[in-house]
Amino acid sequence: MSSTDNTAEVSDTPDEGRRDFIHLLASGTAAAAVVGIAIPVVHQMNPAADVRALATKEVSLAGVEIGQAIKVMWQGKPVFIRRLTDAEIARAEALSGQLKDDASRNDNVPDMPADAAGRLVGPDGQAQDFVMVLGVCTHLGCVPLGTEPGENKGDYGGWFCPCHGSHYDPFGRIIKGPAPENLAVPPLQFVTETTVRLG
Fold it and tell me: Would you tell me which of 88, 148, 159, 176 could form a disulfide with 168, CB atoms 3.0–4.6 Å apart?
């Protein structure tokens, strides 16, 4: 009789240590499941390796002589690179009073006017005689002419967008036509005297 009463007393007593252990185990399992789901979800939002590779691009300028121009693609957009002659620089500087857009549009030297210092680039200690601009017309996103030999460079010797008649000067500044802004200068850095990194 007395042994039966002892058994009943033991089974009715709550085992708080066991219940806490079950709660901790369940919480830990749920937390691990959430982390296990969250990591792949967050990781899939990172840019793919091919996209990261396109974020920057190194371009050799070793073969670009004074007066020549090349076009390269960066992040799916054309970039016009032109090495100006002294006459082209002087001609562009003479057009500074006719600008429709006074901003340099150059993230490398923000808050600069659209003059030679704000638009021309080059390696440290060397002549700043390169113009590097995104080849996208600021009117409706067309690709202006003027980089390839024999193409129409417009009335001011820079680039010309035949779609709606926007004329840019050798610094890539809009002088005439519907385009509201100068061609943008992409983020760039000279990593050697003859190599520039875009992006």
Answer: 159
